[in-house]
């Protein structure tokens, strides 16, 4: 609203008082506009400061996010402030602190046959041990923290963990909040339902069905977007969300929901736990798992990317061996559908 329009509206307020009020309001608007512009310039253009590699990464990521799995830093084996802080921990605290799952069969789970409390095992756990061995020289120098699906990003941002290795999909929304490594696994969203169910896949057979997803998961985001776009039947009920994926399997077993949507790699492991359920239809997305870290932990991101290069190239105790041990029974002997593409990295000046 212009000052002239204000004065026109204030006609009839009476003389000097009206004009004084109009001038005061005009002044307030002008001050607010000045402050807003000043703050915007300050936030967008820090005077006299060059952008850090992390800031450059974010600027490039925000420009156009079409391939979030490629928005990571080039590998390096050099130490930096983040790694030095981890190495500087004293005594029993000199460990890598990692957020993981303890309920995802063959990915991160407690083996009930491996001792009193059960040892954490699985594909993700193998990768964590590999990272700890490289950074701290001891594969067992790890403090595992069980993190629910919707707490993965908050745990990183709050500094409760150094990283999260928990079947975490790299996507555009998440790269705004955390930094990711290059992909270490390829998967896609898939439907899990009882073998006797009329549900056939991610199609019209989900009409009038109640679907379970994990809170904060890419599965829920996909279902929500597809429902708005008309790619999912309007009558499909997606309101049931739970803290962890395994809770969805329990709901399915109890008959409280009709289907589960999750990563196919996880769904296959859940089907292995319960012979009464099965994967229905093909995967309807392509997604990549990455190791998530703090936005400004450039040295740690680069180091993890170097570890992943070595992990994939090693013929002994590498990616292939870990796949064979943990995932071949549920995903098949051929690992090629699960292998991520050759990594691509951002250019930094």
TrEMBL record:
Biased composition, class Polar residues, residue ranges: 49-60
Pfam families: SBP_bac_3
Ranges of residues in domain Solute-binding protein family 3/N-terminal: 95-330
Domain of life: Bacteria
Residue ranges of the region described as Disordered: 45-83, 328-349
Keyword Secreted: no
SUPFAM superfamilies in the cross-refs: Periplasmic binding protein-like II
Signal peptide: none
Keywords (A to Z) from UniProt: Membrane, Signal, Transmembrane, Transmembrane helix, Transport
Keyword Signal applies: yes
Annotated TM spans: 12-33
Record-linked InterPro entries: Bact_solute-bind_prot3, SBP_3_CS, Solute-binding_3/MltF_N
Family label: Belongs to the bacterial solute-binding protein 3 family.
Protein name: Glutamate ABC transporter substrate-binding protein
Organism: Streptomyces griseoloalbus
């Amino acid at each position: 609203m212009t000052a002239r329009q204000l004065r026109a509206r204030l006609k009839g307020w009476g003389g000097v008082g009206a004009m004084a009020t109009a001038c005061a309001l005009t002044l307030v608007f002008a001050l607010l506009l000045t402050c807003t512009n000043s703050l915007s310039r300050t936030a967008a253009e820090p005077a006299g400061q060059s952008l850090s590699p992390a800031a450059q990464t974010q600027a490039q990521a925000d420009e156009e996010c079409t391939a979030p799995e490629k928005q990571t830093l080039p590998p390096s084996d050099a130490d930096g402030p983040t790694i030095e802080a981890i190495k500087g921990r004293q005594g029993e605290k000199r460990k890598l602190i990692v957020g993981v799952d303890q309920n995802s069969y063959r990915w991160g789970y407690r083996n009930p046959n491996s001792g009193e409390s059960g040892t954490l095992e699985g594909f993700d756990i193998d990768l964590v041990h590999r990272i700890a061995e490289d950074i701290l020289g001891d594969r067992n120098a790890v403090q595992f923290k069980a993190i629910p699906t919707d707490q993965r990003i908050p745990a990183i941002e709050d500094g409760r963990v150094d990283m999260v290795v928990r079947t975490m999909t790299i996507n555009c929304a998440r790269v705004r909040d955390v930094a990711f490594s290059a992909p270490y696994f390829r998967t896609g969203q898939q439907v899990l339902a009882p073998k006797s169910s009329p549900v056939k896949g991610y199609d019209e057979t989900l009409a009038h069905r109640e679907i379970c997803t994990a809170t904060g998961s890419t599965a829920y985001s996909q279902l929500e977007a597809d429902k708005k776009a008309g790619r999912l039947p309007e009558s499909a009920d997606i309101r049931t969300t739970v803290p962890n994926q395994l809770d969805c399997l329990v709901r399915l077993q109890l008959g409280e929901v009709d289907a589960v949507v999750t990563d196919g790699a996880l769904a296959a492991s859940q089907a292995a736990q319960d012979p009464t359920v099965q994967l229905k239809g093909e995967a309807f997305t392509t997604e990549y798992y990455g190791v998530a870290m703090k936005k400004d932990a450039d040295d740690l991101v680069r180091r993890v990317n170097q570890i992943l290069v070595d992990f994939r190239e090693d013929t002994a105790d590498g990616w292939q061996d870990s796949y064979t041990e943990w995932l071949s029974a549920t995903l098949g002997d051929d690992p090629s559908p699960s292998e991520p593409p050759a990594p691509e990295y951002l250019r930094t000046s």
